[in-house]
Design a protein that fits this description.
Largest sheet: 8 strands, mixed
Distance between the termini: 18 Å
Strand order of the largest sheet: 1-2-3-4-5-6-8-7
Number of strands: 39
Shape: flat
Helix content: 25-40%
Radius of gyration: 33 Å
Strand content: 15-25%
Length: 937
């Protein structure tokens, strides 16, 4: 397959797996001389009409000359790509470079003719659109900037492929043929089209796994127990709405069913289609199962089997082979080493997991890379007492295990437009593609809350994760910038999720507190202050408060325009007038229902009955009817207290928390998220500065990079490059001798600063390596002598002379290109605040004017910029402009892989950049700008 070409080696990096419109997968790769038989077989399966559209004439078969032409490419001027499923072609595309006369040409000609052919059985799956993205990327790599295509007017499908792609194009009609010409440079519209197609395709691929029409459990044991038999039982008990099949090659030939479910020795023996296969066989037998499933047309696999990447290098290679094998048949995989998947929709009722009970239907989507954490999450949502009550149920649950194929990104694509999911909860041990996850998270968070617990930063052994140089805290900060509600524990994950699932978002941070315990009210007040909220003085109803008192107080608080949310605190009360749990729950719910625009939370102490009553009949915990009766419950599973206060369908149910700190922390996250939603509606703009000379900067960068693969610029080159973007640096003149220091000061004018720039002394004023406000030559020479006496010879100290800048606050601005997350802009105060305390704020590039404004206000030491303790406020608009200019520089020129401006002294009027360094390197690959692909294996 990968034979040497006429002029160039086989370009293996063009190979890619893609998800098609219907959720299936295909392999895209270059066509080689070894593909002659595949090409002929493919062409024989194409209809006469499609052949006519391709060649503009009847063309029943390919001649030997045609086959040679279409399989022999130089991979520069002539390139052919094929989309394959099961190793066989389903579509092809090729380009031929042409000159101005329309004839075959070589570089520097930058135009090519392009033509497609798609098997009729695979038309409508988005194959041509995917091939166009990949052939366009190949053409750009080979210096081709424009495609031309001639299409018959009746071939409307192919015309639509070109016109819908979003490229800038021209259309003409001549001699009965439509000629389309379009530039290949990605445009804002072409990227939007590509990402919309990506979302639809990946969403459909997950939907095929979560909403199958039929399921086969491969590896069902003959005896009760075991993974396969347990999953089969869970599917049956959940009431899966489609056909089920039990598969085990060890079944006796005369065995027709097991537990009332049809039994088969092989997937091939199943007479009807199978959409999803649950694989629970030893790892060494999985390849055989994958082959059977692929040949039978199974759409997806959930692999529960262990023994893959989590077990070491051999297992990692076994995992890679598994993914390649499944994708060859167009199947996607959840797992291996997965816990399973759940879909509570009444139309599906899928419990293809090791969870013995089916969660009650609800509005929360759960994703966990760890099976153990998945069990814990389901358990927390099941729990009815002693913790956060389950005020809503689960829509879908995915435990991805080693996430060799389907990842959190794919599930986010599904949840984005899933009408059954209002809140997404994710436990992530690793993020394989932070740049894409951040993009998807931002879009999802704009529509529904996304709450994430992120692991410590070290990926489990089974996860293939691209390296990132960013600290774990920086990645977390970038997630928050994208609207992610970032929490630290699964307890906080559930706390926040349950509040967001059934309560409206608060419009501000003002919190009313009321209850029958003064002490608990004060604890709640202090917790609000700790979380940055603005609590009103607590209202103590005393321990004699009745249900009516709670109702009236809550109604007044909700009607108060100075309040954005209410926290109700409740402790057990003693007395004849004390309300029962059911009465109190009904009083609170009825008051909250009258003002549904504000969130209400309850902090309860030793009132498990209240928590249960507040959750009413909406717990996620299933209850068997017989077990419910045994406990004195109603036939539908509710306790008598719940039955008495059942909330109407769709009502805002009140979440209850056993500790004030947990309730307030969840509320604070909701406040921050609501503010992000409001700000995300107007993200701001990237200003266009007239004095930026992008072309001059590009010429300078190209010239500098011609010297080598990567280099740190010298002082003059750094100043020149920054100057093209309107960033002026204060000149620093090297002073290897006292006389040269004096001459430099004469040029710059007194007063001056004398600085040691040796790496161990740079930016270390605390060591005495910086002398300021030197008013004359005598002071300069005396300071020079002190520096060399203290730190060594001039060549060791590397002293420079610099004109004094106006006094202000020392800050630092950095930008770095991370291979995983992309370009990141960082800001903080220079010195101990950033170096010792890590007080830095971060934003993804490109930064908008609103991002710049929030960036400088995000650090803990920001008050020093705004007149803290009577000091003069500094020129923050000038600082914001500097941040925007640095952002433009690294966004316009990805070769600029690192920029550091330190210190940047921000004065009351203007700022001074006293130190700057820039590093150039060939830009890292931008997979978010290239064609759609799945992670390579």
């Amino acid at each position: 397959m990968q034979s040497a070409s006429d002029r160039h080696e086989y370009p293996a990096h063009w190979e890619a797996d893609v998800v098609l419109r219907d959720g299936g997968t295909a392999r895209i790769r270059p066509i080689t001389v070894d593909d002659a038989e595949r090409l002929v077989s493919f062409y024989e399966q194409v209809s006469d009409e499609s052949k006519y559209y391709r060649f503009f004439a009847p063309y029943p078969r390919l001649s030997a000359k045609d086959v040679h032409r279409f399989t022999h490419h130089d991979f520069v001027d002539r390139v052919g790509l094929a989309a394959t499923v099961g190793g066989e072609f389903i579509a092809t595309v090729r380009y031929d470079r042409i000159g101005a006369d329309g004839m075959a040409a070589s570089a520097p000609a930058d135009e090519a003719e392009v033509a497609f052919l798609v098997q009729d059985a695979h038309q409508g799956r988005g194959v041509a659109s995917a091939l166009l993205e990949h052939i366009a990327a190949v053409a750009r790599e080979r210096g081709i900037r424009r495609f031309a295509a001639e299409v018959l007017p009746a071939n409307t499908k192919m015309i639509k492929v070109f016109t819908d792609a979003g490229y800038t194009q021209q259309r003409s009609f001549e001699d009965g043929v439509v000629r389309l010409e379009f530039d290949l440079e990605p445009t804002e519209r072409s990227l939007a089209v590509q990402r919309a197609r990506e979302q639809r395709a990946e969403s459909h691929s997950v939907r095929r796994l979560l909403a199958p029409g039929s399921v086969a459990v491969v590896g069902t044991g003959r005896a009760p127990g075991g993974v396969g038999r347990s999953v089969l039982g869970n599917l049956r008990e959940a009431g899966f709405t489609g056909p089920l099949h039990a598969v085990n090659r060890a079944f006796p030939e005369d065995l027709k069913e097991i537990d009332g479910i049809p039994a088969h020795r092989s997937v091939r023996d199943i007479a009807e289609p199978v959409d999803l296969a649950i694989v629970a066989v030893p790892a060494e037998h999985v390849p055989e199962v994958v082959t059977e499933c692929g040949e039978h047309g199974v759409q997806g696999l959930v692999v529960l089997s262990a023994g893959y990447a989590e077990s070491g290098p051999d297992g990692r290679e076994r995992q890679r082979a598994l993914v390649r094998h499944a994708r060859a048949y167009g199947m996607r995989i959840i797992g291996p080493n997965a816990f399973g998947v759940i879909n509570t929709s009444p139309q599906v009722r899928l419990n293809a997991s090791l969870a013995p009970e089916m969660p009650r239907p609800g509005r929360i989507g759960l994703f966990a890379q760890s099976g153990a954490i998945g069990i814990a999450l389901l358990s927390r949502l099941h729990r009815r007492g002693g913790g956060v009550t389950g005020v809503t149920g689960v829509s879908t649950f995915v435990s991805s295990g080693n996430r060799a194929d389907v990842s959190g990104n794919d599930v986010l694509q599904y949840w984005y437009d899933d009408p059954d999911t209002d809140v997404a909860l994710m436990y992530l041990e690793s993020i394989g593609n932070p740049r894409k996850f951040t993009r998807l998270a931002r879009r999802t968070a704009a529509a529904k809350p996304l709450v994430v617990v992120q692991g410590s930063g070290s990926a489990p052994q089974g996860h293939a994760v691209r390296a990132t140089r960013l600290p774990h805290a920086t990645v977390s900060a970038l997630l928050r910038q994208a609207g992610v509600i970032r929490v630290d524990t699964i307890t906080e994950l559930v706390d926040a999720g349950l509040l967001l699932a059934r309560q409206p978002l608060p419009t501000g941070p003002r919190v009313a507190i009321l209850g029958n315990s003064e002490s608990l009210g004060l604890l709640t007040y202090d917790a609000c202050l700790s979380e940055g909220l603005r609590p009103l003085p607590p209202l103590d109803l005393t321990t004699e408060a009745t249900a009516e008192d709670f109702h009236a107080a809550l109604a007044r608080a909700l009607a108060d325009e100075t309040c954005d949310a209410v926290v109700v605190t409740a402790i057990p009360a003693i007395g004849e007038t004390s309300p029962s749990d059911a009465q109190l729950a009904e009083a609170l719910r009825s008051a909250a229902a009258a003002a549904p625009a504000k969130p209400v939370l309850v902090v309860h102490v030793e009132l498990g009955g209240l928590a249960a009553a507040l959750s009413a009949a909406t717990s996620t915990a299933p209850r068997a009817e017989a077990a419910a009766r045994a406990r004195g419950a109603a036939p539908d599973g509710r306790t008598p207290a719940q039955a008495a206060v059942a909330a109407p369908e769709g009502a805002h149910l009140i979440p209850a928390y056993p500790a004030a700190e947990r309730a307030v922390r969840a509320l604070a996250e909701a406040v921050h998220y609501a503010r992000w939603r409001r700000e995300a509606a107007d993200p701001g703009k990237v200003p266009a500065y007239e004095d930026i000379d992008e072309k001059a900067a590009a010429r300078l960068i190209d010239g500098l990079l011609s010297r080598g693969q990567g280099l740190t610029l010298g002082t003059e080159e750094t100043c020149e490059l920054l100057g093209h973007y309107g960033i002026r640096t204060r000149r620093a003149i090297p002073a290897p001798t006292p006389d040269e220091a004096a001459r430099a000061a004469a040029v710059l004018g007194y007063p001056v600063a004398l600085k040691a720039t040796a790496p161990h002394l740079r930016h270390r004023a605390d060591l005495g390596g910086v002398r300021l406000d030197l008013a004359d030559e005598e002071q300069l020479r005396r300071s020079y002598a002190e520096l060399t006496e203290l730190f060594g010879k001039p060549e060791e100290v590397r002293p420079v002379v610099q004109a004094m800048a106006p006094r202000g606050v020392d800050t630092v601005v950095r930008a770095v290109i991370d291979p995983a997350a992309g370009a990141v802009l960082s800001f903080g105060l220079a010195g101990a605040a950033s170096q010792l305390l890590g007080d830095m704020a971060h934003r993804l590039v490109p930064v908008t004017d609103r991002d710049a404004t929030s960036l400088i206000r995000s650090i803990r030491t920001a008050p020093l910029l705004f007149g803290w303790r009577g000091s003069t406020p500094v020129d923050t608009p000038a600082l914001e402009e500097l941040l925007l200019r640095v952002s433009r520089l690294v966004d316009d020129h990805p070769e600029v892989v690192a920029v550091t401006l330190e210190p940047v002294v921000v004065a009351p009027h203007g700022l001074s950049v006293l130190g700057a360094s820039v590093r150039l390197a060939p830009p890292p690959a931008r997979d978010d700008l290239g064609p759609r692909t799945l992670p390579a294996y």
